[in-house]
Amino acid sequence: MLTAPVGAQLVHIDQFHGGPIVEETHANPNFVIDAGQGIDVDVRGHRFMDEIYTYTQKSMATATKTPENMAYHIIDAHWPKAESAAKKFLAMNTKVLVAQTPEELAKRMGVDPKVILSLFKEYNDALAANKLKELNPPCSLKEPQPLNKAPYYAFPFQGGITATFGGPKINANAQVINNEGRVIPGLYAVGNAAGGLFYGNYIGGTQLGGATVFGRIAARKMASLHKNN
Ligand SMILES: Cc1cc2nc3c(=O)[nH]c(=O)nc-3n(C[C@H](O)[C@H](O)[C@H](O)COP(=O)(O)OP(=O)(O)OC[C@H]3O[C@@H](n4cnc5c(N)ncnc54)[C@H](O)[C@@H]3O)c2cc1C
Question: What is the span of the domain harbouring residue 212?
Answer without folding.
Answer: 165-228
